[in-house]
Amino acid sequence: MRDEVARAPDSGSGGAPLDRARAVGRRLKANAAATYALIRRRGRASRSCRHPFMAGRRFEDFLGIALLLVGFAAVFLDPFSVEFRRTLTPEIARTFRSITDLGKSDWILIPTGLLCLLLLSLDWKRFDRRLRAGLSTLLIYVGYVFTSVAASGIVVILLKVLCGRARPKYYDQLGAFDFSPFTIDAGYASFPSGHATTIFALVTAGFFIFRRARLLLFAIAFWSAVSRFIIGAHYPSDLAMGMLIGISFSYWLARQMAVRRLGFRIDRDGSIKPLHTRWPLVAVRDLVHIARERWQALKPF
Prior knowledge:
It is built from twelve helices and two strands. The chain is an all-alpha fold. A two-stranded antiparallel ribbon has the order 1-2. The chain is globular and about 65 Å long. It starts with a helix and ends with a helix. Its main location: membrane.
């Protein structure tokens, strides 16, 4: 990737601030076009490589798991969840309310999106091979996290509007299974949980990048999703569906990247592993060290 992006034309620097801003804009457009062309080329090349989905990870398997998990939660948990929540102490509710915002997407999408724009606005031709390798790796993984969270979030928004399920606050008047399809109202946006989708899309992406931290990431995602039920924003089946959407979309995207050998690879046993075997935090540390040595080259203007 680094060589393709590096071929983007150098717009130069210097001159008036407006000229420099225009140069950055042209460089951003050229680097983005080069990146898109690379993905398309890798996609065409990957068509000759057959990597069938492993048993349990096919689309029909996902539908089966969704029907089992979401159906079980809806039948056996949703009708009793509101009464159970009312037995919890206010201290427990306050504790979980303090962590529920981990499921919001803005604190993920804004920094990762800005970082992608910054990396694409750099003049890659001015960097040596080692620095380009570090920057391209960073761009791939940051772009993967951004796309996983953003795209799965769009799917959830469409499902919320399509289903229009009433939130638990209307349980006493409407029950647990009141649906008003195509209703644009936050009170009828319970299914599926957007917070659960976001946090599980994020941690699933983290599973593939930071393989050593899987248990910690899952624990964070689990309790962040459960907090939505504790504070009365969702039913358990909403959380289950959001979790499945977040996990499945991040897995599917990682697999598409692995087929194209963009940041990931498919191992002989069919599992997805990072293409770069070094611990990512070590790579970031080296990148920071190189950036300090060449801080002038990293200036986008």
